[in-house]
Every structure is written in structure tokens, then in C-alpha cells.
Amino acid sequence: MGKIKKVAVIGGGAAGFFAAISAKEHHPAAEVCLFEKTAKTLSKVKVSGGGRCNVTHDCREVTELIKAYPRGGKSLTSIFHAFQPTDTVQWFEERRVPLKTEKDGRMFPISDSSQSIIDCLQTELTKKKISLKLSSAVKQLSKEEGKWSLHINDNEKESFDRVIVTTGGSPKKTGFDWLAKLGHRIVSPVPSLFTFNMPNEKIIGLMGVVATNAQVKIEGTKIKTQGPLLITHWGMSGPAILKASSFGARELAEKEYQFNIRVNWLEEFNAEQLFCLLNEIIEKHPQKLMIKYNPTTLPNRLWSFLLEKNSIPLERRWNEVGKKKLRHLAEAITNDRFCVAGKTTFKEEFVTCGGIALKEINLKTMESKKAEGLYFAGEVIDVDAITGGYNFQAAWSGGYVAGKLQ
After folding, report:
1. How far is CA 258 from CA 87, 196, 207, 273, in A?
2. CB 3.0 to 4.6 Å from 65: which of 33, 59, 181, 194, for a disulfide?
3. Which residues pair with residue 374 across a beta bridge?
4. How far apart are CA 399 and CA 350, in angstroms?
5. Range(s) for CATH 3.50.50.60 in the chain?
């Protein structure tokens, strides 16, 4: 293919902005146009992290980073080596948007405002004289005389030498029809980041309670996660649940979101270890009330709930509980069972797995194997991650590599 004179980027999200900026950096003489079908750009950046924007994750090793991607994983090794989280941090800091790291590894702008990220990306677009065309929906892509024709809205048509598609995920497979027409296989999309609904479980009465280190297993699968678990008024959320929803996206969709989970409320203990701990309390504090003396790290409301759930009166003293009952309590705390009946989108962070099949993309360049001069980045391909800044990192890395237009 000849000299690159015109580049089109379709989709004004994180991957789209980064791809457009990268294209202009690597091909400064080219005219770069960014098309967005709505009147707003970077909508997901705006709401991410509760409006703070979880830019990336503090992960220095690519071998560890890829573990956060249920779909993609090892396939992304090349693009992450080309543009790592440390590169993301440096990129924003060079543009006067320093980032900070929280205890769990998530990284946010020091301003705690997603607007800092939005302003930075928009400023960069303006500086590099990249055209931004809003309310410009690309309805069709076609190859004509070696160039790509974009059919925009209902009656516009424009030709480009290269095209980068960064249109994000779609809740329905039909959202990818225009790309399927170019010969790409589409992996059917399903939600991949959601909370668990438990309308028939009494635990929802503990809304707001957090178990800081729980383990979650989904019955009938190999899925096992750990981390903080948040009880909500509809069921359960928090990192442990969100990781399970991400890794189990396809299996749980097949189950129509009707399944059971097992929860070990104290991940650091198994049943026998917890039984020993509780047994020690009988010897050391026999006269104390169980409701008043909680020997675990569980919040007191959850401790009380678990006592009642296992038919132990709250006013019972430790020495009044028999060994058999105590063993049963230890087993129940480390292997609690709940029925899930449905899902809820995690905040406004709509994430799907599915999209362009990875085998149809050269993952060293992000170019389509089916159509020369066509590139992809972001969630339009079958890549998604657990929560924690990983989805944005895939957007930055993929956009950067695609923008090289190799």
C-alpha cells in the first residue's frame, strides 16, 4: 500500500482518541479524522470509577497484567509490551495529568476527576490538528480502488487510506453487522461485568456491609475468586463478585443468570482452622456473649447474621455452644451458599465480552487479517477485563499500536 495521506478513526472513546493521537504522532503528514456517531465523546471515561476515571492498574509485569483479561489474555502480550501501564502513567504525566495509586492497585488522576483525563485527550487532539466529526455515524465501510470509503450518516461518503475501528462493544450481535459484511467472524456479545441479584436471600438486609477478604465459588464451574465482597440491597457486588462475573461471563449467560454460589467469608481460613479458632474462644472467654465477642475480622452485623442463620441465639454465651454446633458454624462461614437469580449492570460501566474474533486480527499490529488497511482497538474486539483499570489499559495499548499503521 502507498503513502498514508488520510486516516479515519471510527469511535470517540478512549481507544479512538488514543488511536487518532498515535496515528498523528507516527504519521505527522497524514490527515487524521475522528468520527463519533453521537454528539459527545469519551462518555465512558466520564463515568468510570465513579466519575474519577480508573485510568490503569499499577502492574509492572506483563505476565501478571494479562491475567486480568478473561478474553484476550496471552494474545495481548505483544501490545502490552509495546505500551504498558508505566507508559500510560508517563504519557499522562508528560501532559501534566499526574496519576496516583490506591491500595488495591487502581490508578486515578490526582485530581480525582475524570474531566482531567477528558481535557487532556481533547487538548491533545486539538494540538495535533486532528479533525473531530461529531454526530457522524459510519453506516458502512467499503473498499474502492484501493481506498476505504466511509458511508457517513445517510448521504455522505469520504475516502481514506487507512481506517481504525474503535466503536466499542455492542449489546447485540447485529451491532457488528457492518463489520461482519467485510468477512469478519463475530463472537456473540454477552455482559461481562455485573453484580449478582439475590431477591430471595435475607442477606440483602445487610446492605452496605463489606467482607474485606471473601472467596467466591460458582457452583458447577471452575470459577473461584477472592477479594472484598459488598452486600447490596439487591444482592452482592464488590471486586470478588465482579471478577467472578467477568471470568464467568459466557457460562453464566448460558445459565441465564440462575445459579448458586459458595462464599467463604474468611478466605484465610478453612473450616478446620476456623473451628480451632472458635474453640479457643470457649477456653479463653467462656462467659462472654457471642453477639458481644466477635473473634473474626467480619463486620459485627455480618457476624450476627451468620449466628442467626445457623440457629445460634445472639445472647448465647461461648461456653453454651456445643462442639457439634461450633463445627457446623465454622463450616457454614467458610462454605456459605446463596442462590443468584439475575444480574445488574455494575454502575454505568457497561462492558461486554465478544466482538471481532481475535484470530482474525494480527495482534502485533492490530490490523485485520481479512481486510488490508483496516485496524481495530478497544472493546470492538473480543477482549475484556476485570474491573480495576484494565479495560482502559487495553484501550490505550491497542489504540497506540493500531495508530502506528504498520
Report:
1. 41, 10, 21, 32
2. 59
3. 163
4. 20
5. 6-190+348-402
Cβ atoms within 10 Å, residue 142: 12
337: phi then psi, degrees, rounded to nearest 5? -125, 135
When pLDDT is cut at 50, 70 and 90, the band that residue 3 belongs to is confident
Residue type, 160: F
pLDDT digits (tens, 9 = 90+) for 152-195: 998 899 999 999 999 999 989 999 999 999 999 999 999 999 99
Q: Identify the sign of the CA torsion 327, 330, 335, 339.
A: positive
What does 63-110 look like in DSSP terms, one character per residue?
A: HHHGGG-SBSGGGGHHHHHHS-HHHHHHHHHHTT--EEE-TTSEEEET
Residue 381's closest CA among 364, 395, 400? 395
Name the residue among 18, 216, 241 with its Cα closest to residue 117. Answer: 18
pLDDT tens digit sequence for 334-387: 999 999 999 998 765 568 899 999 999 999 999 999 999 999 999 999 999 999
| Distance from C-alpha of 361 to C-alpha of 355, rounded to nearest angstrom | 12
Is the Cα dihedral 233, 258, 228, 330 positive or negative?
Answer: positive
Give pLDDT tens digits for 226-268.
Answer: 999 999 999 999 999 999 999 999 999 999 999 999 999 999 9
